[in-house]
Amino acid sequence: MDLVSFVVALVAVFIGAAGQRMIGMGWGLVVTPAIALVAGPLAAVLVVNLYGAIACIVILPKVWREVDWRRLLWIAVPALALMVPGLLLAKGLDTDLLRVLVGVVAVVGVLITVAFTSAARAHDGPVLRVATGTAIGLLNSSVGMGAPAVGVYSLVSGWQDRTFVATMQPFWVLISGAIVVVRPFVAPEGSPDWPLWAWLVLAVPVVAGVLLGNRLAHLVSRTVVRWAIIGLSVLGGVALIVTGTMGLLG
Question: What is the C-alpha to C-alpha distance for residues 157 and 168, in angstroms, rounded to an integer?
Answer without folding.
Answer: 15
